[in-house]
Amino acid sequence: MADKTQMPLSMVHTGRTVKLAGINAGYGLKGRLAAMGMVGSVEIIVISNNSPGPLVVNVKGAKIALGRGIAYKVMVRCDQTGK
Questions:
Q1: Span 20-34, pLDDT tens digits
Q2: What H or E segment, with its residue span, contains residue 6?
Q3: Structural domain includes residue 25
Q4: H-helix or E-strand containing 31?
């Protein structure tokens, strides 16, 4: 059931709040993202998702800019309705 609501972070619209579901990458990128606060099922708020630029998110109060390739590897869940 949870798999149906998982999607790449790059597909989430501006203003939505989602939760981290996993990262489809190697140890290096996973470690780098963990150092930025992307661990467990942390809440991620999408501040800006305007193509072709980077995706800007808020994680634990910090703004983070992610390239499109990295954002595609970050899998999230849309747990909250209406956001």
A1: 999 999 999 999 999
A2: strand 6-8
A3: yes
A4: helix 27-35
Q: Which candidate, 32, 26, 23, places its Cα nearest to that of 64?
A: 32
d(C-alpha 6, C-alpha 59), whole Å: 18
pTM of the predicted model as reported, rounded to 2 decimal places: 0.87
Domain extent at residue 59:
2-77
Task: For residues 43-68, give the mean pLDDT.
Answer: 95
Average model confidence (pLDDT) for the chain? 90
The tokens for 22 are 């996993």
* Number of domain units in the chain: 1
Are 35 and 63 contacting, i.e. CB atoms less than 8 angstroms apart? Answer: no
Q: Which amino acid is residue 41, in one-letter code?
A: S
Close Cβ partners of 67 (under 8 Å, ≥ 6 residues apart): 54, 55
Q: Is residue 70, in this structure, part of any structural domain at all?
A: yes
